[in-house]
Amino acid sequence: MHRRPRIAVALAAALTAACLTVAPASGAAASAAAPRSGSVPSAAADGHVWSVRPQADGSVAYTAYRPAPGVSAARLYRLLAAQGVPGLLDPATAATPLTVACAYSTAYAFNGGMCPPARWRWNGYSDPQVYFRDHTPAAWPVRASVTEWNRAVGVDSYWTTGPCPTSGRHCVHVWSGNYGTTGWTGNTSYRLDSSRFFIDGSVWVELNDYYAASTVDRRNTACHELGHALGVGHNLADASCMYATDVPSNPQYPHSSDYNLLRYVLYP
Ligand SMILES: [Zn+2]
């Protein structure tokens, strides 16, 4: 969504700079945004199983798998290992508590609130332009989820079934299929360059039909994975679709803190 009249450029610059430093910010506006010192609640990072694959060119490829209902991270890890997924981090030992987080209230940047946040480049636009190339059937509410994420100020999200655009605009492929009893409802894959910007062509989402028993399941899963593809990590509030694990309430929408994370922390 395009910017409304917004915070001063100086404040935006300060927030950007703050997100890259270790010193905790002070002041009302800054303290609401990134970074924050102190330990990051483990719930911001756990709940998923990660595959991390360093590349020869210095970039790093990641896939985040969200467990299906009733599947623990430990069990999903074993399932993925049996499927031959490379680069798996054992959730029992992989969590490295951060002492500084890129976060806004209960919403954390991807990779457990890691700073600088994983995000898209502006490429000369006033907001990064992110196109979601939808390969799914109509039962998956990808278009509706893109509309919700486009309410965010600071990054523009578009839905398309056409070719991926060029000229500095980004593209996220969204796939679905009956991937079977994989243990995950959805996953998001991406590569980050050394400045932790998403690399064009490396970001895609997979939505698993197998665990999508209802319309609300699909809405929750689509909202969650598309949020990751914008750089939004997990939210400690279970009213957000970015809550790390499936909950019976199946939140359908981003939380206000997710929008604020996008506006003030990821794309200021
Ligand atoms: Zn997730």
Q: How many extended strands?
A: 12
CATH class: Alpha Beta
Largest sheet: 7 strands, mixed
Structural class: alpha/beta
**Count of structural domains:** 1
Question: How much of the residues is beta strand, in percent?
Answer: 15-25%
Per CATH, what is the topology?
Answer: Collagenase (Catalytic Domain)
Query: How much helical structure, as a percent, in the residues?
Result: 10-25%
CATH-level-2 architecture: 3-Layer(aba) Sandwich
| Low-pLDDT segments | 4-32
Total of helices: 7
Strand order of the largest sheet: 2-3-10-11-9-7-8
Overall form:
globular
Give the SSE string: HHEEEHEEEHEHEEEEHEH
Q: State the separation between the terminal residues, measured CA to CA.
A: 13 Å
Name of the CATH homologous superfamily:
Collagenase (Catalytic Domain)
Mean pLDDT: 85
Molecules bound to protein: zinc ion
Rg computed from alpha carbons, rounded to a whole number of angstroms: 17 Å
Task: Briefly characterize the structure.
With 268 residues, this protein is of the alpha/beta class. The chain has a single domain (9-266), classed as Collagenase (Catalytic Domain), CATH 3.40.390.10. The protein contains seven helices and twelve strands.
